[in-house]
Each structure stands twice: as structure tokens, then as C-alpha cells.
User: Fold these one by one.
Assistant:
Number 1:
Amino acid sequence: MADLAQASAWCAQRGEKFTPTRRAVFEILAEQDQALTAYQLLERLQQAMPHAKPPTIYRALEFLQRMGLIHRIDSRNAFVVCDDFPHHHDSAFLVCQECGGVTEVTMDHVVEKIAADAAAQDFSVKHATVEIRGVCKQCQN
């Protein structure tokens, strides 16, 4: 599970507030083995904060992404906690097609090669995220 104290300290170091709502959304994601959509998060958040509405979730998700604490899994339109904050890095996500589990793996050396190839085409890479779909070990058994 991601370290809540470390996430809170990370925000404070940047002069940002880790509000109760942001903290709750982070905690919900940190407890999961799979990515959650905004509406799945809202449903869980409403158990603790019954008056939470969709904008509440979207604002919290935008903040957590900006802080580098979570990643968006584009193919699932869902979110997971970053396994390696506070380090800025490009990531690949192994997404299980059976159970929906998501595992983050670093791919810095791959991005370096892509950036070099892109530079040869006068293209500047700013960020890369790769999603690899397959079947996890548990689902293979």
C-alpha cells in the first residue's frame, strides 16, 4: 500500500494541501489491486462522505495526477496509485484482461530509445505511458 504520510509530506513540500477529500481518494486507490474509474471512486467515497458529487472526484483526481501520486490508465479510463512517487518517471502498465489488475513497471531505458529516435525526426518527447494488455500470473492458473 502506498504511504499516506509520504504522500501528505510530498504535497506539503510543494505548498499544496492534502485535504480530507484528496486523502480519502488517495487512500481508496492505495487499497486497490486494480484501477478504479471516477464513478467507482465516487461510490466508495460516498460511504465516508455521503454528499460527495462527481466534481469532487474529478478535482481530487486532477490534483493527485498533478502531484504525481496517481496515474491514469487510458484504456480503462481509470486510475491507480503511482508505485514510485516522488520520482518522476515514465511508466508502462501491465493490465490484466481477466481480473483488471494493474502493475506498474518502469521503462526509462525504452523511453530513452524512443526519445532518441524521435529526436532524429525533430520531435521532442515530453512524457510516455505504455499500456500492455495480457493475463496476470494469478489468472493464468
Note: The first strand starts at residue 36 and ends at 37.
Number 2:
Amino acid sequence: MKFVIQRVTHASVTVVGNIVGSIGKGFMVLIGISGTDTRETADKMLHKLLGLRIFDDENGKTNLALADVGGELLLISQFTLYADCRKGFRPAFIKAGPPDMANELYEYIIAECEKQFHTEKGIFGADMKVELLNDGPFTIVLDSDQL
């Protein structure tokens, strides 16, 4: 599983001209799910994501977590995080999880986040337009294979 986490001042996702998710200060997270991921993988990734201390404290140090700043989450499914570009110029996506399995895990991640934070989401499998103002810029890539 891969998360690309961007600290944002605001972010939104639009599908067919309609905003389907919008947040203020928080994290916009692109979520890639592989064919070998499980709920246990998701739990491990969520623990790290929700505990990240990358917001500035009163001294300007990155020392505060999402909960400390009343942050929000915008979660976007992104199978292209599993692009394999080693051969030629057209990426292969064979490591991305099958759609039914990946969607189930994506919905699980959303449900877990909603227990603690205001959480918005994109639409799985849709052509989405994502807008954000990256704060910093501050971007972190989490890979379950490296946790």
C-alpha cells in the first residue's frame, strides 16, 4: 500500500464538474492499493498517517499531528501509484490491486478515518480532478513495504 500525503491549506476533488469532496487544513492523501494488501496493511498505514506530526507548533517546528490542529482528510484512490515504468514508455499496472478488492480496502480506510476526523473522498475509479494548495510544500510518501 502506498500513501502520498500532502499537507494542505485546502483541497477538493471534482467529478464530472461537481465537487464531491472538499476540505480545509489537513491532509490530501492519494491511496494506492496493491494486490497483496490487507486490512492489517491498512491499519498499519493508518496508524502512521494519523500520527504524523508535520504541522507547525507555536515555535514553527513540525511537531503537531492532524488531531492537534483540527485537521481534515481528503482521500483519493490512485491505482497509478503502482505504475511500473521499467520497460518502454507505457506504464504497466499489474501490481495494482484488482478493482473490487482495492475498492473494499479504500472504503475500509475511509470508514476508519471517519471515526476520528472529518473525512472527504473521491469516487473510486472515476476520472477525478484534484485541486489543492500544498502547505510548505510538504509531501510525504508512505510505503507499507518500508514500514
Note: The mean pLDDT is 97.
Number 3:
Amino acid sequence: MKSKSLLIIASLLVGGNAISQTKKIDKMKQEQNDNYTFKLSEKVSRQKVTFKNRYGITLTGDLYLPKNTGSKPLAAIAISGPFGAVKEQSSGLYANTMAERGFVTLAFDPSYTGESGGEPRNLASPEINTEDFSAAVDYLGLQSFVDRNRIGIIGICGFGGMALNAAAVDKRIKAIATTSMYDMTRVMSKGYNDSMSLEERTKMLEGLSQQRWKDAKEGTPAIGPRNLPEKLQGNEPQFVVDYFNYYRTARGFHPNSVNSNGSWLLTNPLSFMNMPLLTYIKEISGRPILLIAGENAHSRYFTEDIYKMAEEPKELIIIPNAVHVDLYDKVNIIPFDKLGSFFTKNLQ
């Protein structure tokens, strides 16, 4: 179990060397709509927007507006994730689909990734990425066509944990949904299913600490080993196959995505190792939480544990036969009708 734990951490969290996308993928993506992995709804308009977070980092997002809604201010939803993805992938699909249901939606690239600002590139932070959600709420609440008292958020994969953390501290957020949630601080600091021993954690931190000397000497941060192979060899764990089939094929590939075409910095886990994201999950109390996970998802335990920890009102939905990545883009499996009714009810 420990070796499986370390394999998952290496493949999902550390990242890998930046490589050029294959010609085959490049050709497939050129045939898609401006590198978006989904088709824009005829019922929705999309425009690129920018806004700053509290740290002065300029974030870039896509604003989705339902057409023919009249002049009355609308409820709005900010969306981000999965961890290592960009707005042209899963979060954009969610935003497009929720805008069809009458919401103003904003899918955004987190700090240090995609088209958003922040140096060095391909870095993640539990604090800054939590702040990114609140910055998106700032932006939405300043728009004349948005009712600032009716704003919710959706977090996908690792940004499910960021979304819940943001909602705990930001009382403007009125409703929260997560799909295929990951608690990135838990898995980085404790391993998959909390299987990392103290000795393993200490060894990992010693290595990362020594890497700081090397980065300081070189003047640039080092990148880690690849998280997904160039080609499948046939002996990979199923979760690796699932990620490959999304990020490394035309289904979900995007050149700006860390998981598709880049790498996390080698020292990326450092800020996650001693900063538990969900310490104050109970302080969402009184605001509704909808937690969605696949029955066969390797990440299911994160969602179920958060459901036990959270206060009411809360709801847990387990999608039969679904794996983690199914909730990224399989529109026949993602419960969009449920998401629509959840936010319609709770953003009144």
C-alpha cells in the first residue's frame, strides 16, 4: 500500500519535466474550438476577463453569460479545477453547462498556471489558490448583472478542497459544490489513504529542503519527474490510465495544462506539507454543501470523510460505477441537473 501511495503522490502532485506535445495530439487539438475541450453552447456567450487576487496576481478567466435573460441581476458561480488543469478543460465545461441553466459563471486559471499570472510558473499554494476563489467572488460581485448576495462556487478535484477552504473563511459564498474532491494538503503530507509513515515524511521533507539549496544556487527552481508517461506501457495502475486518457489525448489535452503538457516544480509540495486546508470545515455551517464522488473513484474517501466532518446542511452523492476522472467531462454521468437544482434553491 505504501508503494502505491508514493506512486500516486508522484504521479499526481510532483509533476514532471516540461515536454513538447506530440504531433498527433497537436493535430487533434487544432481541429477543436480554440483549444477548448468542449463545444460552446448556443445558449451561452463567453468572454475572457482578468482580475487580481489579494496578493496582486492577475488571474485570467472565462466569463459565461446565459443569453436572453433580461435585465435582472443573476446568481453566479465561480469554478476551478482540477488540480493541474486549466479553464479550457473541465472547469470551462462546468461553467458552460451551468450557464445554460441560467447562472453567470466564471471558470478561471489559478495563480501560477495557465494564462493567470504568478512567477515562477507551475506552482501551487493552498493559501493563494484558496484566495483565488475569493478573488473570483470579488470580480463577480462587482458586475452589474450579478446579484452579489447570490454567489456560489464549484471546486473540481484538488480545487474541491480549495473551494471548501475558501467558503469556510469567506462568508459571501452562499453555496458550495465539489466533484471528485481531493484534499491536497492531506494527500501530500500523509500519503494516499494516510499511509505515509513519519520516517517517509521526514525523508521527503529532508529531500525537499536540500533541493532549496540547489534551486537557490541555480537561480531557478527545478522541475520534477513526469507524472504521466508519453505512452502507456500496459502495466500502469488504472488511475494512471484514467488520467492519461483525459490529459494526454484529444479528449482533455490542453497545452497550458500542467498535467497535459508541463510539470510542477520539484519543491511544490512544501507549502502543502504542514498547512491542513480543511481545519475549519465546520465554519461553513448554515450554508449548504453538495459533495459528489464516483463510486469507484480512488479519491472517494476524501469526499466521504469531509461529509462526516461538515455541519448541516450537507448532501453526499455517489455516482454509480464512476471513477475519479469521469466527473471531469462525462456529461452523461456528471449530475448537472442536480447541480442546477442545488444552486437554484440555495442562491435565491
Note: The chain has one domain: 33-196+266-346.
Number 4:
Amino acid sequence: MVKFCPTCNRSSEEVGFIGEFCEVCTSERIGRTIPDRVSIKRCKNCGNIKTDMGYEPLGKDPIERAIKHELHAKDFRLKMLEYDETKGTADILFKTDIDGNKLSFTKKLHVKMEMGYCPKCYRMKAGYYEAVVQLRGRSADVENFVTKLLKFIDSRNGFASKIDDMPDGCDIYVSDKAAVSAFFDSRENLKPKKSYELYGMRRGKKLYRHKFFIDLRDPRGLWSKKKH
């Protein structure tokens, strides 16, 4: 028996039906429940965008994940077909199941980039640090040490908020005290002197900054004693 859509009068001989309505009208009806615009948070310092995985470099897959994250469309499977950065638009393919029937349709979304700071860049801008590495020694040893420390810290998603030059070395202010501890733990020949400084409270818990002092001129701390 031929069915006719009560909305557009299309017949079941022309298009598929979902319940009493044709799939075209069903797609249009459901499509109207999805926002026409979506805002994505983007860091104005590093350029990364916020997705369900945190902040990621701008790219097709991260933009797709960011749109999914912001739409909160749990009943749909989304795939970005095209993104026009100049126009700020994205063509999205939506797929879903309704009463056992598969339905898919495309919709053009207007994408707005909301500029701000990601947590890491915000902390960098504010000069945040949890640890200070007080490094002393010959210039070449100090430079070698700093390079390796910063590379290790960066691999842990940390950063140095500032480096103060000293007459015989430097003080490095690092965002993550756990990363600094891990750095020294991975190098048995480097045994820094440790101290702690109370700097605040959070939820009734005392917060401490860690200080690590190491003199590379000390035979027990010379970088050249062991290759890493």
C-alpha cells in the first residue's frame, strides 16, 4: 500500500518512510532541533582548540571532536564533511536510528571561535610555578642541563614560567613539581638538595612549592658522569 507524507505529500514510492512521515520531512524536523551555531574555545596564545580530549592543535579531526563536544548530541553519530575556516562554516553529516530505522542528513553549522586562554597558557601568562630548580655550575653544563630539563618537562605537558640568570647558574621556575621529581628520579647520578616552602591553602590542604638545588661542579652531580 502506497503511503503519503501528511507534511509534503511525497509518496512511499518516491522516498523512504519512518513511521507516518517521509524521511525527508523527518530529517528536516530533527535537523531543526540541532543548533545552527556552535562555539569552540580556542587559545589565543598557542592556537589550540578545546575538544573532549582537552586542548588540541587546530585540524580537521580536532574540529570535528570539538563540534561533537559542544553540541552534546549523544543520540547522533557525527562526521564533518567540510570545514571552511574563512566563512566559519562546517558541513556535518548526522546519523541516528529511529524506531529501528537508520536516518542520515547533513546540516551546515556556523562555527565561532571563542578566543581565550587554555589552562596551560593561562598559567604561563600568570607566572604559575610549583617548583624551583636552583642550578649552579659551568656555563656549558648549565645550558646542557636546562635543555634536557625543559625537554622532559614539556613531554609531561609542563612548562618553565621563567628562568632567572645567576652569576654561576640559573633558577628555573617550573609548573609541575611532580615532573621535576620524576626528572631527577630518572637520573641516579643527580642528587639535588630539597626544601619546601608553604605558599597557600586549597580546600583545607596546605600547598607547598618544592625547591631543588644542585651544583654541577660537585663530583656527585656532574652531568658528564653519566650520559642520558
Note: The first strand starts at residue 17 and ends at 18.
